[in-house]
Design a protein that fits this description.
21 strands; 4 domains; Transcription Regulator spoIIAA; six-stranded parallel sheet; alpha/beta; Rossmann fold; 453 residues
Length: 453
Amino acid sequence: MSTDSKTKKPLNSGKSYYVKSFGCQMNVYDGERMGEMLSDQGMQASETREDADLVVLNTCHIREKAAEKVYSDIGRLRRKDGSTPMIAVAGCVAQAEGQEISRRAPSVDIVVGPQAYHRLPELINTAKTGHKAIDTDMPPNSKFDVLPSRPKQPRPSAFLTVQEGCDKFCTYCVVPYTRGAEISRPWGEIVDEAKALVDGGVKEITLLGQNVNAWESEDDKGHRQGLDGLIRALDRIDGLERIRYTTSHPNDMTQGLIDAHSNVASLMPYLHLPVQSGSNRILKAMNRSHTVESYLEILERVRTARPDIALSGDFIVGFPGESDEDFEATLEVVRAANYSQAFSFKYSPRPGTPAADMDTQIAPEIMDERLQRLQALLNEQQFDFNRKLDGKNTRILLERQGKKDGQLVGKTPWLTSVHVIAPDAKIGDMLDVHIDSAGPNSLQGSLIRRKAA
């Protein structure tokens, strides 16, 4: 029985919910799907968690102290009158912590892992009786089979999960333990969801997966297809203007997928391909299964297929045993790759991973210094990429309001943000713009006026 049952507000159809998602884009997708499922059950989305009858904390377990941050967030949900909403902890921290969450945070009513959130409505019904509801199973049947169809979307760009889980077992990563083994969603299921998104107003779809380019399935004719085949099929959907995908693993970067960047018009010239380190010794310790040489050879083939492609990557500095020479090798890879943007982090040990038990941990002050040097180089490359767009004409997809009157913000094909004054335009429009100036993080543009016929 919940220790806070007397201060819980009853949860019924028509009550409100609030979903807060942390971490990766797949968590954003999962959070949206949970919201859609709750709406399908008759609940209403709340603008703030303070006004919600149910708060779902959709958690990420990648970074250090992720669990502690969740417990801190749970504590902030207590209201001035001493009551709390019904609280559900979902996602990877829920999967990793399980029963421990209920022990440490008695106000939590529901704990549900990322492969079981389709059971959220029945877990809510259990919690309404005052009992804790915990489900961290990884059922063999697909959760996607029971989720509701996609409603009209509030934004012109949407995520679509096509692959989940990971079989790579990098020594620093918890994903194989929190998301399970690699699973590809069926072809027809993905195509149907993509069509529903486009029918609901979406013009750009980003295909998601822990290793998205490991996706494979049989098409509607029984032929085995990889991600490139799926992209070519989605390219034929009327109204779908843009296709992206993330995150890719170098070992699954097929020539067919590289060629798609050359001859599929809707596939945007952007590739996020993490390398993590520029040292083969560290890559081996990470169990990354690719080398610096094989990674750079892939980038060369990608640039041959699509010379204007924007490249992005991930880096971990301070992995156990990383020497000054190893770090300098990482800087050399960054210089050779020449990224348009990239993500970099200090290594943080995750409980249960092999790297956490290595006895060659790097001192925090050394990691700090290395991260600053790496990010300075990456920021310089990003600014250089943006400056190369200065003076060019391009097409942007408007995604949100800007801070100035009549200003809107859209994305280029290379995923850079452009601020433009367009008082007669609306979110979701595709606009032709001239890039007037470039900043470190975004661009300023102006509308290209078409002459009347």
